[in-house]
Amino acid sequence: MKIAESFRISWRSITGHKLRSSLTAIGVIIGIAAVIVFMVLGGAFEANIVQDFEEDQGDPGMWVNTQNTNQGFEIVPSPIYTETDIQTLESIDGVEFVAPEANLQASQLSFGDTLQTGGFGVQAVDVEQYSEEDMVKGEMYSSGNEAVLTQAMVDTLGGAVGPGDDVTINFEGGVSEEYVVTGIVEEGFGSGPDAAVFVSLVDHYNTTVETPRGTQEQAYSSLIISAEDASAVDSIKQEATEYFETDSDAKELKQEEQDIAVQTVDDAIDQITAVIDQLTVFIGGIAGISLVVGSIGIANIMIVSVTERTREIGVMKAVGARKRDIIQLFLVESTILGAVGAVLGVVLGLGLGFLAVTFIGWPMAYPVNWILIAVAVGLTVGILSGIYPAWRAAKVNPIEALRHE
Amino acid sequence: MQEETATDGIVTLSEVKRTYYLGEPVHALDEVSLSLPEGSFTAVMGPSGSGKSTLMNMVGCLDTPDDGTVTVNGQDVGALSDGKRARLRGSELGFIFQQFNLLPRLTAAENVTLPMVFQNVVGESRRDRAKTLLTRVGLGDRLDHTPPELSGGQRQRVAIARALVNEPSVILADEPTGNLDTETGSEIMELFAELHDDGSTILMVTHERHIAEHADRIIHLVDGQIEEIEHVTENPPVQGSETA
Ligand SMILES: Nc1ncnc2c1ncn2[C@@H]1O[C@H](COP(=O)(O)OP(=O)(O)O)[C@@H](O)[C@H]1O
Ligand SMILES: [Mg+2]
């Protein structure tokens, strides 16, 4: 019997029992839709993070910091990157500048009567690290008692702070200093929280260490390497990594169980997306278990259908159907149910995913691979759940089937 | 009477035995020998449980003998594989049942051509064939109706068209008028008479004498054995006989 023929006959039988067929397909629809929803959410979340990163990225570059071996992302704030290291890195081809990052421990910020305790960061940043585009308003600081704020910081202080105003920072340890605001800097500048104050590095940072050569040098716990353009990033990363593995001061100064990480924005994105991917697959897999239920549903309905259609099977055998024809008919029927369920499940999943993602405010993601996998799984579920019922149908004895009503 | 020659004939049964064991062995067919010559019209009568359906199943290649041989068109049915027997059923036999046994979700035309589907006959010719046959049984205007939309008599006509579709060697009818009122039943018998006139070979089970009299001969079965083969000398006039 031709496959197309069985499609025609099976389709007739499916549409002839609309309610029953729909209920059967619902099991698969829900399973597939659940998987797709999670894949859309995962993909959208990922796209959202990547988008954030790319918006914040600014100048092409990478940062260098120290991590405890085997502890993933945990950054250790130990001052091991010396001035000598900075100078060596600056001599690498394509490097625009190398700037140390230094977080200052501040507890309170005040502007007139407005007090802000915690929830903000203060960083000592080398003037070199700024470019014109980073400034939203005003200009860079040029002396030790000047500071720039992010817009988020301004908002936190009530929105009225601007260039020329005075703010007071209380540092941990009881020291409190007054600064003149010279400008507003773009949000996402630096590596701390959105609400941040930046002050001059040379005037606020003076941690020194003894170098392997026995001299005393200023040292920092992390560095930013800025590239002249994006195409230089990879080669700089390679050279910098090599330097840290061979004759850097940082290599000698770091603890045995610490690693020096040179990370570009892409590396960070890769790391984060890898974690999200794993999570998404895990949750999607759990959702996929509901497909087993869908599969059992199809098998169950097909068995009922075989019993119900025993007489029809007998008739088909009487008019010349062979066992394989009957098997084919029932397999095609269950496969259609699985496939239709999968397609509708994908549509429903994309729809629900779109609603959720739009509601949250993430960009929509279309998990193409997962859509293909879902359809393949739906077909497989259809075929597998049809095997036993089809075998039962093929076994029907036409004499018995034709005898009783 | 059982010594009828079992060699020529489109269907032959020779010393066919079929026994069911339900505690006591029941001889549904007990050394039955029979031949259906080409173009013959044979009726089978007998009390309930005498083996009529078992005989039909044998000829219809749905069952195989425990002993003895059944041949259809020269082929030994008992020696065939399951699949080959199914193919033989589809090509050499046409079934007509008391319950019509049409597929309820297929149209009349699709029901008629269903046996062609299993013989892998494809194409537009199928619909032409259905139209020809349905016209022949008086349903040329009902091609796309489904069985629930047809009356009992019309359904049986569709079943007859289906039985003819693969130009079978033998038409098997098990109580074809059993579910029909007298008038409709005689209309169906009219069709059988026409088929017989056109040269079809027919084997029909019935328990009604006046139905059986449309045949050339009547086989009387009792306890799985042929008790008598009665030759019908004068067929009843089909037209208007029941309505008179
Ligand atoms: N599947 C079966 N199992 C057991 N006995 C059966 C079976 N089919 C038929 N028989 C027995 O075989 C005998 C003949 O049955 P059947 O051919 O159906 O008779 P009829 O059609 O003349 O009424 C009966 O006694 C019946 O009970
Ligand atoms: Mg019977």
UniProtKB/TrEMBL annotation, chain A:
This protein's record includes keyword Plastid: no
Subcellular location: Cell membrane
Protein's UniProt keywords contain DNA-binding: no
Domain ABC3 transporter permease C-terminal: 286-398
Alphabetized InterPro entries for the sequence: ABC3_permease_C, MacB_PCD, Macrolide_Exporter_MacB
Source taxon at top rank: Archaea
Regions annotated as coiled coil: none
A family per Pfam: MacB_PCD
Membrane spanning stretches: 21-45, 281-308, 329-362, 368-391
MacB-like periplasmic core domain sequence ranges: 21-242
Membrane topology classification: Multi-pass membrane protein
GO CC, any one term: plasma membrane
Keywords: Cell membrane, Membrane, Transmembrane, Transmembrane helix
Family as reported in the entry's similarity comment: Belongs to the ABC-4 integral membrane protein family.
Stated name of the protein: ABC transporter permease
Source organism per UniProt: Halovenus rubra
From TrEMBL, chain B:
Natural source organism: Halovenus rubra
Domain of life: Archaea
Protein name stated in the entry: ABC transporter ATP-binding protein
Keywords from the named record: ATP-binding, Nucleotide-binding
Organism taxonomic ancestry: Archaea, Methanobacteriati, Methanobacteriota, Stenosarchaea group, Halobacteria
